[in-house]
Design goal:
Pfam family, one: AllH
Helix content: 40-55%
Number of helices: 12
Strand content: 15-25%
Structural class: alpha+beta
Radius of gyration: 19 Å
Distance between the termini: 55 Å
Strand order of the largest sheet: 8-7-6-2-3-4-5-1-9
Largest sheet: 9 strands, mixed
Organism: Pilibacter termitis
Protein name: DUF2877 domain-containing protein
Amino acid sequence: MKMKSVKIGSLVKKMLSVSLVHSSMKNEIELKVHSVFQSGFNMQIDNQLIFIGNLEKGITPFGLHMETSEFLRLKEAVKMEKKLSVFFPPTFHTMTLLANGETFHFDEVEEHDGNLTIHQPFVESKKIQGIKLLTGLDFTEELEENSETLSCLFSTNEEKIERGLTYYLGRGCGLTPSGDDFLVGLLSVDSHFNLLDSQFYPILEKLLHERRTTDVSTMYLRAALQKKFSSLIIDFLSQTHESSFLALLASGSTSGADTMAGIFVGMKRTLKT
């Protein structure tokens, strides 16, 4: 019999472990539905989100990802009951999900650590020059390094940094507005090259605490603040293959392109330092 496996983001392990400490149930956590959409659904845990989806759109640092057949069955069960129980041993070597009377057992749990290593030849290549991106917002001035708002992000002045972040946070439509995706892309490059001032991270965390954007974007941005990223971003920045470029570009309606815009801005900045 084929063993079933699930891929788990490192932040999910952390969330479940912390929640279990405060739970009266041994090795069991109950999650409530936050949002359901075609490619996945979000479950709420202690004011945070766990994304559950298949493997087709990469792996998130706060996600559980499984084969499409298992995901579709689980999604229907969760839609019916609006909650999901998660059972796991302290070692996380197996996991069982229970929803609407159906049991989903996974014999193997593989961790996605979300850590990023940037492939240096990619940084020095011409691939970041002249690519036209169909973004949700117009990032032309940012990509041409002719944006006063963008310059605020690279400032060492606290007031200017906050002004720049306030402009981008929550700007755009959808579960992850374009401005947020742009910031995630920029932060992915910063995680390797330290382009942003040390004040940038606590200022962004403060603004997220003030709920300046959507719950889903907040999870991606908080993961980025911990230098944790989706496998699509990691693959794109650690390889030079066209397939990784296209995979990120195909992510969401414009999310991939918006993220890429932030990456390209960061990359261009590294070439100047």
